[in-house]
UniProtKB/TrEMBL annotation:
<dbReference type="InterPro" id="IPR056879">
    <property type="entry name" value="RM3_Med14"/>
</dbReference>
<dbReference type="InterPro" id="IPR056878">
    <property type="entry name" value="RM5_Med14"/>
</dbReference>
<feature type="domain" description="Mediator of RNA polymerase II transcription subunit 14 RM2">
    <location>
        <begin position="44"/>
        <end position="123"/>
    </location>
</feature>
<feature type="region of interest" description="Disordered">
    <location>
        <begin position="330"/>
        <end position="359"/>
    </location>
</feature>
<dbReference type="InterPro" id="IPR056877">
    <property type="entry name" value="Med14_C"/>
</dbReference>
<dbReference type="GO" id="GO:0006357">
    <property type="term" value="P:regulation of transcription by RNA polymerase II"/>
</dbReference>
<dbReference type="InterPro" id="IPR055113">
    <property type="entry name" value="Med14_RM2"/>
</dbReference>
<dbReference type="Pfam" id="PF22981">
    <property type="entry name" value="RM2_Med14"/>
</dbReference>
<feature type="domain" description="Mediator of RNA polymerase II transcription subunit 14 C-terminal">
    <location>
        <begin position="1027"/>
        <end position="1169"/>
    </location>
</feature>
<dbReference type="Pfam" id="PF22983">
    <property type="entry name" value="RM8_Med14"/>
</dbReference>
<dbReference type="InterPro" id="IPR055114">
    <property type="entry name" value="Med14_RM6"/>
</dbReference>
<dbReference type="GO" id="GO:0016592">
    <property type="term" value="C:mediator complex"/>
</dbReference>
<feature type="domain" description="Mediator of RNA polymerase II transcription subunit 14 RM3">
    <location>
        <begin position="126"/>
        <end position="233"/>
    </location>
</feature>
<dbReference type="InterPro" id="IPR055107">
    <property type="entry name" value="Med14_RM8"/>
</dbReference>
<dbReference type="Pfam" id="PF25069">
    <property type="entry name" value="Med14_C"/>
</dbReference>
<dbReference type="Pfam" id="PF25065">
    <property type="entry name" value="RM3_Med14"/>
</dbReference>
<feature type="domain" description="Mediator of RNA polymerase II transcription subunit 14 RM8">
    <location>
        <begin position="940"/>
        <end position="1011"/>
    </location>
</feature>
Amino acid sequence: MLMESCVILNLCSPGLFSLTTLFPDSFCLSLQLEVLHSQTLMLIRERWGDLVQEERYVPAKYLTLAVWNQQVLGRKTGTASVHKVTIKIDESDGSKPLQISHEPPLPACDSKLMERAMKIDHLSVEKLLIDSVHARSHQKLQELKAILKTSNPGDNSFIETALPTLVIPILEPCGRSECLHVFVDLHSGMFQPMLYGLDQPMLDDIEKTINDDMKRIISWLQQLKFWLGEQRCRQSVKHLPTVCTDVLHLSNIASHPAGNLSKHKLFIKLTRLPQYYIVVEMLEVPSSPTALQYKYSFLSVSHLEGEDGPMCAQLLQHFKPNLEHLVQDATGKGARPGTKRKVSGDQGEPEPKKPKRSGEMCAFNKELAHLVAMCDTNMPFIGLRTELSNMEIPNEGVQVEGDGSSHAIRLLKIHSCKGVGDETRRALDRSLLDCTFRLQGRNNRTWVAELMLANCPLNSTHSKEQASTRHVYLTYENPLSEPVGGRKVVEMFLNDWNAISQLYQCVLNFARALPEMPSYLSLFSEVRLYNYRKLVLCYGTTKGSSVTIQWNSSSQRFHLSLGTVGPNSGCSNCHNIILHQLQEMFNKCPSVLQLLQVLFDTQAPLNAINKLPTVPMLGLTQRTNTAYQCFSILPQSPTHIRLAFRNMYCIDIYCRSRGVVAIRDGAYSLFDNTKIVEGFYPAPGLKTFLNMFVDSNQDARRRSVNEDDNPPSPVGVDVIDSLINPLQPQPPPQAMRGGAGGVYPLTSPPNYHANVTPSPSMMPTQSPGNIHASGSPSGALRAPSPFGPTPSPSSLGITMGPSSFASPHGALDPSSPYAMVSPSHRGQWPGSPHQVSGPSPGARIHGMSPGNPSLHSPIPDPHSPRAGTSSQVMPTSMPPPRKLPQRPWAASIPTILTHNALHVLLLPSPTPCLVPGLAGSYLCSPLERFLGSVIMRRHLQRIIQQEANLSIVNSNEPGVIMFKTDVLKCRVALNPKNYQTLQLKVTPENTGPWSQEELQVLEKFFETRVAGPPFKYNTLNAFTKLLGAPTNILRDCVRIMKLELFPDQGAQLKWNVQFCLTIPPSAPPIAPPGTIAVVLKSKMLFFLQLTQRIPVPQEPVSIIVPIVYDMATGLTQQADIPRQHSSSGAAALMVSNILKRFNELHPARQGECTIFASVHELMANLTLPPGTRQ
């Protein structure tokens, strides 16, 4: 214990206490050796493991340790050398400290390393081994450096002693991260290479090779030199749009010069020019093992079978070898303006050579980066210049702009376009000052062609178009599948130039016609924008509508688009319904002035036409679930609009100049007015109805209504032939007239009155203002029938359904089956409005306004109730074209109306001659009321034939339907004052119980609730069933109708009543809504709607009450129908209780009807609890 304590104390504080004072030297050395042995065993057990082995230990003599034992470590690398360290006591001189010996001996390298490895005065075996391993590692690195020196006398490798490392520059100049670092593993003594960016498998191969044979590092350095050169190239173009690859699979590599490239090469693909590659070849420099020579080539490839097919090499061209000088002198060849220049004396001193930069910048290949950047920038221009030359478009080639920072190609001349006149081409060439192509954007795929033009022929109101010169910028996105600057870009530019030329020709003609343009068109329109690519015209009273004219290169046609601007920007343009026809007209005759004239003539009529209801409605016919379109707007030409009313009646509207339109019955064929277009029916009385809206101030003369309703025979075959053949010589105007009445041929409507001063469009001159003389559609009152020679829509494949019938496409569509004569020839028709002078039909009608008393003259329409001749009843099924009497086709003669009259005719308005309280809630236009009344009259005739209780009565009055029941004689006809309502006149067969008031209520109910809007078939059918009811039942129903029409007469009642002729949607589920609500057999079923009388601010309560009247017992009670809702069920229970109590208190007497009394009781005493709703 004493000995161990002394050893520890000596180790901890050798200066305080020495063992030599107690023991001899030999004992102390033995004790130190024992301590080192103990440290060795502990370190082997805890940390070293097999890395250090105890070879032999002899107490008080020596301790031998083995390190770097390759066989023990399992590394079969070369000779199994054993490195030993022996710590021993000098036997000859015991006063010497412990001696250290190495096997094999340490080399004479660094003296400090040798000194530390030969002493152990610190008594730490671990520190001794570390110093020994450091010395041996330094020795191994020195041997490896000697091999490098032998191979390369200029070797610049060096050894770092802190951590034994040999740093070997691979490619000079070389950054630290690019050098190969060879370490010596202190545990195993093996070489461990490290190079940033090198794959681990390759590092493992290098390690194994140099540990087996250090001389083989020379070959590895040669391979790493090419690898590092390739990495430098990759890093140099990493920030550029490129993709690098070592191998490029080419289908013709065997026969192409690209197959002769060197082994070490790199293909750099320009991603924005995918068909181009930069090839970098890396070659040896014989005099310098740490240098490489770069050789650059340009390679173009193509795909044989699309983008995914194999690539084929096209062009391989080597760049000049002095690229480095080109890079240095790229910006120094020309002196920039404003820069200082050296005087001649200052040029004598040579500029000192700058040292080469070291560090990471040595890896940057500036020649390659500059080469890639220049190719990426210039190749699109070279490709564009090549395509321009191939298409024989003269240009100045690639020019440098912007102080050398950008490039451009200027065109010297652009080819003329087909379809453009020589005068237009020369004017456009004179105005074109410059045309330049540039690249824009970061991806180098966007081309911008800048056109500079002067002497713009048209002045617009746009603020950016007030300069003397205009700049037009055309942008083209190069497709990814096409090379940048390829043929596609040139073709797109030529298409745009063609579009500019085509529009420029229209604008040039328009500009020449502006001085002669009528003043009303100048006030009507303005040029809002003209940028050579599109022309935007704003028109209208407030200039709130716009039309844009452009040339479509894909379809080779002008394209028109309509819109609204300013306060009307949220609305729809009224001309949208004739956009197709306008576009066809403009493409046949591209005249801006003519287009403005048509827009002027049609804007007001189309505003009125657009107000017509076009939404399909249910319940108009017996099939309640089938929807029918009220009005179908069918444009036939820009100035001819056809209106189909419920697929039965057809109205043709022709827009003419000077604020008028011509309206006719479109059911009559345009070629033969005695024939009917299949699928349509003539509207009886249409001529008389339209004459009520004729403005007396518009016409210069008046002719009788009888002349209109009884026109002479149609034109003969010779006139028809002259209309079909516009090239036939024109007969004199007198030959074009009809009989003694001066009626013009039906297919050639007359002109306006001769006393009216003709507009410029009527003058026989070739001025641009004479657009009608050149075939204006607005002047053509009568276009040929869009249905062709066979006037049958069904024979032409037209389905008369509500959806397909309302097709907006007219006969001007080239793909349309309709044969429409070109509007450009209408002005040449014999007897057209521009060549025949004479009075128009409208000019022969005086004072035909709705308020004119002359409307009720004794010469009415043949279909009026007081006409003297008979009228044939129209059959329900319309056969193919058939002959009609002369008088019914009076409506085929156009009626001239002003725009204001057309607005009155087509805009919704209250029903005239009716008390506001009696008018229905459905507001519609006078035309809809007239046509609806005509339809209801037609329905009534069919219903009478089906009802057993009604019988038809022959009448000599045309347009009048007379029928009778057992006790009543009824007469139904249009109201002769306005032709907008259907009136019923009831006369008792003999003196009976009917009072005059009851008959008036029945007539008024028919006019306001049955035959009025929305003109439903089932409503009329239900009313006729009521007419056939027994007298006592009908009288009670009339008394209920009186309470509905005049609710104020039942002031003491709590409810208002409405007689439901069709089942309402909120009724109990007994039948679909819209079904006839009157059933009359042994019992009578009908429906009433009761509405509670409450103050206005509150929402009224309404309930539907189904009533059943038993004719045998005379009892009136509620129909027993299951209810779904609890609230309606509670109301139904209360209604049943009131009716039962009434039947108990007032039993029915023989022949007495209790319907009205029961309903009156119900309206007086029914009180619903709060919260009850139907």
